[in-house]
Design goal:
Elements: H1 16-36, H2 38-46, E1 70-72, H3 78-85, H4 90-95, E2 99-101, E3 107-109, E4 114-120, E5 126-133, E6 144-146, E7 159-160, H5 166-170, E8 174-178, H6 181-189, E9 199-204, H7 211-218, H8 221-226, E10 228-231, H9 236-249, E11 257-259, H10 268-272, H11 278-285, E12 290-291, H12 292-307, H13 315-329, H14 334-348, H15 352-372, H16 391-394
Parallel strand pairs: 8-9, 8-10, 10-11
Antiparallel strand pairs: 1-4, 2-3, 4-5, 5-6, 7-9, 11-12
Helix pairs in contact: 9-12, 12-13, 13-14, 13-15, 14-15
């Protein structure tokens, strides 16, 4: 879920260098406050992150910790008083998103009684903050509070952790997309530089993943080498985030997409809270991860079964499920289509022919749309590059890898069923669908 944004300050003609300087001073102030506040340090320790709250503690490589986590005390004007005393004007503090006006026009701190995480740009400058509510905050307090967009910060183009993990990412560590900043910290703590390679987690800053952020992730060196993994919570919001990530990332056809196998109700931050779980977290991000397209298919079918418990028991429901997930198969490279056709047939209890024709019909529909719409017209008979079979697939002994027809295919072309497609004797239960929903076709 996207975190609430602060009200935008009134436009002022502030010097961007002064805004950066104000935020750098604020980051230093918040850091000193954390080192003096027992409660926030105990909270971080309980999350397995005590190392992030120790003063001047070098990491294993001998370099100071890059995150500079701090704490905003509960006073109304603690930061305002500190920064105005350092020579910053009220207008500059408002423009920097560090202070806001009350209804009585009083200037007060934006972040109060929150663990504060600085957001840095590519040059390492502090340009914004994320504030995490104290554990004892009331139900009306938003869990996360984010700096507003400004002349030096655009939340839709920024990823938390990008600057802090620059060395790892440039060395080819594989990027992981997570929901929140504490998840990014958890994955960072699960690895150390002496491993040589690993995973580096990035989080959107108070918004759903954007097209610009997805493009940034896919251009990282590790994305081309190892792919991109998403590690979102196994709940409704996490499923929606994973589905959105798939549709934004799959346009980068040369990037392999995976989903971490996280336990139900847990996120990376929960796993790292236990000292012995770092290895388990690494495993769930790597060899236990599943193809993201499979996970998105599971999400869609699970949601349909929740609404219609007998969906996969009767033939019309099975066919409806196939048609609902077929668009997902048109967004992946050809070799992946072949495997996913089989997967969908297994989880829905239908035949491979039923799934194949559902996907082919979508390809033909998209092909016809390209030919009829001059804005998206492609050369006659052309196949999208990510769907064209490779030489390896075309020459494979696999009977599913047969190019044919007006559009080059990388999967079978069985006889189209004359009537309702015949279902198989059963289906493989989808992850997340309980056994009471499972059944066999008659």
């Amino acid at each position: 879920m996207a975190a609430p944004m602060l009200p935008l300050p009134e436009p002022v003609h502030a010097d961007p260098a002064r805004l950066v300087a104000a935020r750098e001073h604020a980051a230093e102030f918040y850091r000193h406050q954390l080192l003096r506040a027992a409660g926030p340090r105990q909270y971080l320790a309980g999350r397995g992150m005590a190392v992030l709250a120790r003063p001047h503690l070098p990491w294993r490589s001998g370099v100071d910790l890059p995150w500079r986590i701090g704490y905003a005390p509960p006073g109304w004007t603690t930061l305002v008083d500190h920064l105005t005393g350092a020579g910053f004007t009220p207008e500059e503090l408002e423009a920097a998103g560090l202070a806001t006006r009350t209804r009585s026009n009083r200037l007060v701190d934006t972040f109060r009684d929150r663990i504060v995480l600085p957001i840095r740009d590519h040059a390492g400058r502090t340009v914004a903050f994320i504030g995490r509510a104290a554990p004892g905050a009331g139900p009306d307090a938003p869990k996360y509070l984010n700096s507003p967009d400004s002349a030096i910060y655009h939340k839709g183009q920024t990823l938390y952790g990008l600057a802090e993990q620059h060395d790892r990412l440039q060395a080819g560590w594989a990027p992981v997309l997570v929901e929140g900043p504490l998840d990014a910290l958890a994955i960072w703590l699960a690895y150390h530089d002496s491993m040589g390679t690993g995973r580096a987690a990035l989080a959107p800053c108070g918004t759903s993943l954007t097209q610009a952020q997805a493009a940034t992730v896919c251009t990282l060196p590790g994305a081309a080498r190892h792919g991109v993994t998403v590690a979102f919570d196994d709940d409704t919001a996490g499923h929606a985030a994973a589905d959105r990530a798939f549709h934004l990332l799959c346009v980068h056809h040369d990037v392999v997409l995976r989903s971490a196998d996280l336990p139900a109700g847990a996120d990376p931050g929960d796993l790292i809270a236990h000292p012995d779980n770092a290895a388990e977290l690494r495993a769930r991000l790597t060899y236990r991860a599943r193809p993201l397209a499979e996970v998105v298919i599971d999400h869609r079918i699970t949601a349909m079964v929740a609404r219609h418990p007998r969906l996969l028991v009767e033939i019309p429901g099975q066919v409806g499920a196939v048609r609902a997930v077929a668009p997902i198969l048109t967004r992946v490279p050809a070799p992946e289509v072949v495997r996913l056709v089989r997967y969908v047939a297994e989880v829905t209890g239908t035949g491979i022919d039923t799934v194949t024709w559902a996907v082919l019909d979508l390809f033909d529909t998209e092909h016809d749309a390209r030919q009829s719409d001059p804005r998206i017209r492609s050369p006659a008979g052309a196949t999208p590059s990510h769907l064209a079979p490779t030489a390896q697939s075309a020459s494979s002994s696999d009977p599913l890898a047969v190019p044919t027809g007006r559009v080059q295919r990388a999967f079978p072309l069985p006889p189209r069923p004359a009537t309702t497609p015949r279902a198989t004797t059963g289906h493989r239960p989808v992850r997340g669908v309980t056994s009471r929903h499972a059944g066999r076709s008659r």
